[in-house]
Amino acid sequence: MTEQMRTSTRDLEELRRRATAWLRGRVGGDATVSEMSRPSGNGLSSETLFFTATWSGSSSRCVARLAPAPEAVPVFPSYDLRAQFEMMRLAREKAGIPAPLALWFEPDPEPLGTPFFVMEQAEGEVPPDVMPYTFGGWLHDASPEDQRGLQDASVGILAALHETAFTPRELAPFGPAGLRAHVDAQRAYYEWAHGAHRIPVLERAFGWLEEHWPEDPGPDVLTWGDSRIGNIMYQKFRPVAVLDWEMAAVGPRELDLSWMIFLHRFFQDLTVGAGLPGMPGFMRREDVCRTYRELTGYEPRDLDFYEMYAALRHGVIMARVWQRRIHFGEQPMPDDPDDLVLHRATIEQLLAGYEPAS
Question: Is 152 a catalytic residue?
Answer without folding.
Answer: no
